[in-house]
Structure formats: structure tokens, C-alpha cells
Amino acid sequence: PILERIEPVGPQYLAHARRKLFNRTFSEDDEHVTKEKAAEAAAEAARLAEDDDGMMDFEVEPDHKDDLRRDAKDWKTQDHYRVLGLGTLRWRATPGMIKKAHRTKVLIHHPDKKSGASGGNATHDDAFFKCLQRAVELLSDPIKRRQYDSVDPIPEESYNPLKDGADLPFIEAWRPVFEREARFSVVDRKNVPSIGTMDSTKEQVEAFYGFWYGFESWRSFEYMDKEEGDGPENRDDKRYLEKKNKAERAKLKKEDAARLRKLVDTAFALDPRMAVFKEMDREAKDAKKKERQEQAVKAKQVAEREAALAKELQEEKESEERIKRDEDRKEKEARKKAIRKEKKNVKTLMKDANYGYSKGKHIAPAALEIYLSELETMLDKLSLEDLEKIGSELSASKKTNEEKQKILTIAAQNLVRDGLANPESLTQFGGDGVERVVRQTDTKASASTPTAASSSSSSGKPTKEWSVEEVALLIKAANKFPGGVSDRWDTIAGYVALHTGLPQRDAEDVIKKSKAVQKGAAQEATAVRQLQFQKKTYDITDAPSIRYDIEGDVPPVAVIDDNTPVATTGTTDAAAVGKKKKAGAGSSKAAAPSSSTTKDVKGSTASETSPAPAPSTSTVPAAAKTAALAAATAPTTPASPSATVAGGPPAAALWTAAEQKLLEAGMKAYPPSWQGEGDRWDKIAESVPGRTKKECKLRVKYLQEQVKMQKAAASTGSGR
């Protein structure tokens, strides 16, 4: 067995619930039900009694003269209610009224009654009695009576509310119209909504018109069907006639629906309540619209306030950022200005210290150019604190020139030791010697521990600063080893380390620096171009077939056996070549030559001079070459007594006449008293295409030293 929930229904359950609800027994409940049924029967009897009383109240109308003369065969056009004397009640007549009227008429018009009558009625036949019988048969059948009522032209239909009720209020004028039309509704007349009053609500009025716009009528118009004529019955004729009758009924029903719809439309348009409701709806709609507009205005105002506040905050933020940038810029400018001041101070102090030489000693222009260039390179890599420290140490009055030179030498060695400078760019300050010691140590360490380099590169320590030469080699290696090469960045790092002699950097450092170079730092790009130009001028000594096209009276460059360029000036070529061979041989054997002797263009012997402190022996031949190149490209003036002192490449001497003219024009356009926007030397450098600010400064210094040396030589010659 399965337990299921069952819902009890039916009269027995209702009786059970009734007994439980009222706490009755079976007998008490049966007695109560019997009393209820008796009360309902009494109410029905009372209703029937009222109908009888109403039936007894009405009077049968007298016969109409037209009905008395009517032919019984023309029964379909007769007024059945008028024939029975119910012309006023018509569709409101009850079945009891119809029976009473029929009995009354039969007592008068029955043929048996008329046969014994005398007077005017004696001449009548039984035609009216037949019409009376036809009327009672039709009105006694509910179906046939409804068919007849659907086409019965009642007197109320002649009422026109627009004409007859023009002087009446709307409700009173239109109430009879909807009451007469309500008799055709399929809904019980008690449930048909009333037209209401002027105080009816909008929902009641809308329900009223909604009912009539969806009105369902029981009118069938079958009473208007055409009957068959005399003659034999034909099935096809019957079907044809039935089809025509059906089409005619549909037509009449459609016309009646259109008539009723027009009637409802007219009432709806004239109903003053609908105008009030429309006005209320319009006001409500306008109120909602106004509310939406007010909300939109408020939202707009809130948005504008928020936007203004955000803009104000943004402006404050931008103002703060701008002030911060200005402060940072001012701080950077102040720092740069301080660095320039300290660099200038160091240069002035070293100039006063005769660039590290003993008092009374003079340095050749070519060597001075190299010294100043390397000094500028070293000072660029020092911080402001280091410059201030060096400046304070150099300012000590008790220090000799050699001690001051030693201070710079220590600073240069520290830069090389920390990997911040290329040792070969600081040869005047002993940087190359420190680099060689470091290289040997690195070589031994790498031989003993092969994984030292990889472990140090991956230790996460901050990498050392890139030199200009390393950046130039990085650019060259990136072009030489394009994308797609196996282990490209490790290969580029090895290439840079191989050509600089520095420890190999890790791939991440190389990638980071490559991205920084691609973004284009102007200062770094300028330094790289300067280095490339210097390397190009250095390589000219190794390619005798390539010469610079320098304007002016400059003697050509000749190459002797050891590839040392000298200036050929007429009859002194052989002597100069011989002297150069001896000087080159002597300098290659001596680690630190104390002096050298040369002859000027006229063949005079120069006095001995002291060279820069401790140059490397490996750089002497190159220094001799560059010194000879400087002498060859110098202006056609009496040469300095120490014009062939070993030194670096005289880049400031390699200027064409056109560039010299542009430089002079720039110096005139931007004199020291110039107070325009920007840096004066930047403007001068812009007036000389292909030259940087640093190159212009070195050129001016070089020319100043040349003038000084010429004046010194002139004073020495006049003293002799």
C-alpha cells in the first residue's frame, strides 16, 4: 500500500464540514437543510405571486383595426405583440402575461363565439383568429421569440439622444440608449455596467466603455430569412436558399455591430467625464514630465558640481605637480650650476697649478688638448660631492702642483676601479694602470672559478654605469647581431666586453640599456657621435690613402715607417723624418721619458720640457702619432717648442676653415654678455652644424692656448 494525500470534495464532504463547523449532529444538520429548502421554495412562490400580481395589473390592449383586416397568410409581417394586445410591453412581457392576453383574445375572436354574435362582428371571418394563434405559437417558443425580438422595432429605437436629449444632461440623455441596447447582451442584464453618474470614478467609467466596446450581442436576424415558395421540394434549391439567408444574416449582424460601435464612439466623445479624466491625465503626465526635468536638472547640476570639483582637484594636482616639477627643475639647474661651478673651479685650480707640472714648465698644445679632454671626461663622471671634495683639497695652499695632480689621479683611479670610466680615456691620470691590474685579477678569478661571472651577474646587485664607448659598441653589436640570432643578447654582451676589456654584463642589463638608447637620450647620443668622430680621426693615421679636406695653408700629412704622421715643409722633411724615427724609437723603449727635443719649421732646437705625469708605455707610440697629426694640422705659425710632446688626439685642431668661420660668427652673435633664453654655448653649437657644445668649448680653449704659446715663443725669441 502507498500513502497518498487525498483532497476531500463533494456534497458529503460539505455536509461533514458543515457539521464540524456548526457542531451539529446528523439529524440536526438534516433538519437545518430541510428548513433552508422550505425558505427557498417560499421565496420562489412569493416571486411568482408578484408576477401574477403584476400580470393582473396590466390591461390587454384593444384590437387594432389594421390587424382585424390582415390576411392570415401574411403572418410574418404582422406585429405579434400588438395582435395579442401587448404592444406597449413587448419584449418585457412575461410568459404569464402572454397566456392571459391570449385567453382574453380567444374569448372574443374564437370562431364559436363569433358564429353566434350579432352586430358588426358578425361579418368577420376567422382570419384574425389564425393571426392570433400564429402570434401565441411564436411568442410561447423561447427560441422563436428571441428571433423575433432581435428584429422587433420597439418605439425606444426612435429616440435620438443628439436631438431628443439635446437639452438634457449627458447621463440622462444617454441612459435610455444603453438600457435598450443592453437587452441584446449575452450577459445577464443585471451584470451589465451602468452608465453611472457625473461623480463616477475613472475606473468605473473605463469599465463601462470597455464593456460596450467589447459588446457581445445575441441578435441572429433569422426571422428575416426568406421562406420557400410553393412547388416541389428541391434539395439544391434549399441549399442555395439557406446559403443566401446565412449571408444576409451575417451582413445584418455586421451592420448592427457597426451601428452600435458608432453609437458608443459618439457617447465616448461627448462624455464630459472623459474630458475631465483626459485633463487629469495630461496634468499628471505634465507633472511627471516636470519632475523628470527637475531630476534631470538636478542631476546635471550635481554632475556639473562634481565635474567642477574634479576639475578643481585636477588643477590643484597639476599645480602641485607643476610646482614640484619647477622645484625639481630648479633643483636640477641649481645642481647643474653647482657642478659647472665646481668643474670650473677645479679647472681654474689646475690651470693655476700649471696642469700638474712644476712651475716654469710648459705643456704643448696637443698634450694640453688631451689633458683638458680627459679632465673634462673625468669631471663629467664625478658627483657634486666628489667635485666639492676635490675642489677643497685643491684649494689647499700648501700643496704642490704634483700633489694636486695626484689628487686627480686618485679620483680617476677610483672611477676606473668602480667601473665608471674607461681606463684608456684617463691615461693622463694613471687610469690605464689600474685597469690592467683589475683585468689580471678578473682573469685569475675567472680561471679559478668559472661560474663567478654568472653568479655575480645574477646576484641582483646594481649594475655599473655605461660608458660612452660601451654604448657605441652596444649600438654596433645590435646592428651586427639582428633579431633571430641564437642567444642574441648574450652574444652582444660578450661583444661589448671583448672590445672594452671590462667584465661581461648580464643580458638583462644589456636589454635595459638598449631600450634606454632607443628612447633617445640627447646627451648620450651626442657623446656617442663625438666618440665616433674621434675614433674616425684616430683611424686616419692607419689609412694613409684617406685624408681630411682641410682648407687653408696646412701642410700635407706624410707617413713614415712607424706610421707616425709628420708635417712636410719643404727642405726640412728629411730632418724631421730622421728626428721622428729617433724620437719614436726612444719613446718606445722608455717607460716615462723626462724630455724630448724637436725642431721647428726653421730648424731651431727646442728647450726641454717635462711631460704629463706617468703616461703608460703602451700609449707612447699612439701619443707620438697624434702629436705629429696635431702639428701637421695646426695653423701655419711658428711651432711650439714642445709641439711633439707625447699626447692624445688633438680633436680641437681638426676644424675646417668653414667651421672656424661659423664658430667665430657664433661667438660674435652670442658674446659673454648675452642674456637671452637658454645656454650661450648651446646657441653657439647650433650655429656650427656637426659640432657639439663640448667640441666648441675645446676649440676655443685650444685657440686660446695657441695664442698664449705664440706669445710665449715670441717673447722668448726677442729675449734671445
UniProtKB/TrEMBL annotation:
<feature type="compositionally biased region" description="Low complexity">
    <location>
        <begin position="564"/>
        <end position="577"/>
    </location>
</feature>
<feature type="region of interest" description="Disordered">
    <location>
        <begin position="29"/>
        <end position="51"/>
    </location>
</feature>
<dbReference type="InterPro" id="IPR058871">
    <property type="entry name" value="Zuotin_N"/>
</dbReference>
<dbReference type="GO" id="GO:0030544">
    <property type="term" value="F:Hsp70 protein binding"/>
</dbReference>
<feature type="region of interest" description="Disordered">
    <location>
        <begin position="561"/>
        <end position="649"/>
    </location>
</feature>
<dbReference type="Pfam" id="PF26185">
    <property type="entry name" value="Zuotin_N"/>
</dbReference>
<dbReference type="Pfam" id="PF00226">
    <property type="entry name" value="DnaJ"/>
</dbReference>
<dbReference type="GO" id="GO:0043022">
    <property type="term" value="F:ribosome binding"/>
</dbReference>
<feature type="compositionally biased region" description="Low complexity">
    <location>
        <begin position="443"/>
        <end position="461"/>
    </location>
</feature>
<dbReference type="InterPro" id="IPR009057">
    <property type="entry name" value="Homeodomain-like_sf"/>
</dbReference>
<dbReference type="InterPro" id="IPR042569">
    <property type="entry name" value="RAC_head_sf"/>
</dbReference>
<dbReference type="InterPro" id="IPR036869">
    <property type="entry name" value="J_dom_sf"/>
</dbReference>
<keyword id="KW-0143">Chaperone</keyword>
<dbReference type="Pfam" id="PF00249">
    <property type="entry name" value="Myb_DNA-binding"/>
</dbReference>
<dbReference type="InterPro" id="IPR001005">
    <property type="entry name" value="SANT/Myb"/>
</dbReference>
<dbReference type="InterPro" id="IPR001623">
    <property type="entry name" value="DnaJ_domain"/>
</dbReference>
<keyword id="KW-0963">Cytoplasm</keyword>
<dbReference type="Pfam" id="PF23082">
    <property type="entry name" value="Myb_DNA-binding_2"/>
</dbReference>
<protein>
    <recommendedName>
        <fullName>DnaJ homolog subfamily C member 2</fullName>
    </recommendedName>
</protein>
<dbReference type="GO" id="GO:0005829">
    <property type="term" value="C:cytosol"/>
</dbReference>
<dbReference type="InterPro" id="IPR054076">
    <property type="entry name" value="ZUO1-like_ZHD"/>
</dbReference>
<feature type="region of interest" description="Disordered">
    <location>
        <begin position="441"/>
        <end position="463"/>
    </location>
</feature>
<dbReference type="GO" id="GO:0051083">
    <property type="term" value="P:'de novo' cotranslational protein folding"/>
</dbReference>
<dbReference type="Pfam" id="PF21884">
    <property type="entry name" value="ZUO1-like_ZHD"/>
</dbReference>
<dbReference type="GO" id="GO:0006450">
    <property type="term" value="P:regulation of translational fidelity"/>
</dbReference>
<feature type="region of interest" description="Disordered">
    <location>
        <begin position="311"/>
        <end position="343"/>
    </location>
</feature>
<feature type="compositionally biased region" description="Low complexity">
    <location>
        <begin position="584"/>
        <end position="646"/>
    </location>
</feature>
<dbReference type="InterPro" id="IPR032003">
    <property type="entry name" value="RAC_head"/>
</dbReference>
<feature type="domain" description="J">
    <location>
        <begin position="79"/>
        <end position="152"/>
    </location>
</feature>
<feature type="domain" description="Myb-like">
    <location>
        <begin position="655"/>
        <end position="699"/>
    </location>
</feature>
<dbReference type="InterPro" id="IPR044634">
    <property type="entry name" value="Zuotin/DnaJC2"/>
</dbReference>
<dbReference type="Pfam" id="PF16717">
    <property type="entry name" value="RAC_head"/>
</dbReference>
<feature type="compositionally biased region" description="Basic and acidic residues">
    <location>
        <begin position="311"/>
        <end position="336"/>
    </location>
</feature>
